[in-house]
Amino acid sequence: MAIVDAAPSQPLASTGAAPRGLDRRRFGAMMLAAGAGSLLPGRPALALPASDEARVIDFEWVDAARDRAVPARLYWPAASARKGPVPLIVFSHGLGGSRKGYSYLGEGWSAHGTASLHIQHVGSDESLWQGNPIMLLDRLGGAADEREAIERTRDVSFGLDRLLQRDGPFHAAIDRTRIVAAGHSFGANTTLILTGAQVIRDGKPLGFRDPRFTASIVISAPPFYGEADLPAVLAAVDVPTLHVTATEDTIRIPGRYSPVQDRLDVYAAIPTPQKTLVVFQGGSHSVFTDRSLRNGGPLNPLVKRATAEVGLAFLDLVHKSDPVPLEDWSATWKPILAAAPTPFQVDARQWARKRRA
Q1: C-alpha distance from residue 261 to each of 183, 215, 264, 292 (Å)
Q2: Which PANTHER family did the record assign (predicted)?
């Protein structure tokens, strides 16, 4: 179905300088929110974390039905950042990634009261870079085939099941009405499948939708390779969707090439008007991973922070029908955007009720 950027992740780097035109106080707050200093080392969760510190919690789950390990990392907000039941984003990494990657998203989101669960897909994770280099292309090909695409969706649903299980510490703490699927590259395809994308096999639709997801964040989505009719594949995707890409977001690995236009085509093929597209000016396909300055130079950490923040603004748009955070975000980050985010159809009645209140 899909294949993605083939490069291991590295730690986030920071320039420490605000871009021209950004509000200094707002940028400073984002700098602090993106920092790792408030997070504690991962550890098994025996009880709901209650201290006023954000937490990183690692899980070593195994799906016995598939005899498949499903490691995961949870970024849990500090008590002071939580306001009632906690929204949850479930994140799927790109090809060759792991639960440790995309830490800037987990840190940034949890700093503002939104938990994120990062699933590791053992059939297409960092283990691809291990072993005989001569066999790397074979490993990449196997990791990006249709069977692994399906197993990835099952990984995500299984991880969500485990986090929400009735006897677990997070069962009552997570807001079931605000659970969002998210992913980068191959993980973006995983997200689309979980929210309605399907293909026809033997004359029948094949899909793995998880109805618990109320929205999706799709970062650098490749096309569904081998599928000629993209609108048909995405016809059933009806949840609100945020699409994020960059003007140099091109995928180049042996056997696969995907230009930036593919990201725009995926956005265009989503049928619901409750969608918006964010395009950064510059930045490679891997600028959204934890890889640092050599991919995008000084732009790299800015794109990361802006991506984390636009995810939160999008959740306000979807779950509160409040367009103001996205409007403010667009004004703040205008210096590094190729264009303003595309219009999103807000529930006008809900927004009117909110303004009257």
Answers
A1: 19, 23, 5, 24
A2: PLATELET-ACTIVATING FACTOR ACETYLHYDROLASE
Q: Please give the structure tokens belonging to residue 241.
A: 């969707």
pLDDT higher for 320 or 96? 320
Q: Which domains does the chain have, with CATH numbers?
A: 24-356 (3.40.50.1820)
Please state, in angstroms and rounded to a whole number, the distance separating the CA atoms of residues 76 and 60. 17
Q: Can you state the angle between helices 103-111 and 24-34, rounded to 10 degrees?
A: 120
Cα–Cα distance measured from residue 194 to residue 315, given in angstroms and rounded to the nearest whole number: 18
Per-residue pLDDT reduced to its tens digit, 76-119: 998 878 888 999 999 999 877 888 899 999 999 999 999 999 99
Token pair 């990835």 is found at: 152
Q: Which two three-digit tokens encode residue 294?
A: 């050599």
Number of CB atoms found within 10 A of residue 142's CB: 14
Whole-angstrom CA distances from 281 to 161, 183, 245, 309, 344 are: 38, 21, 9, 17, 21
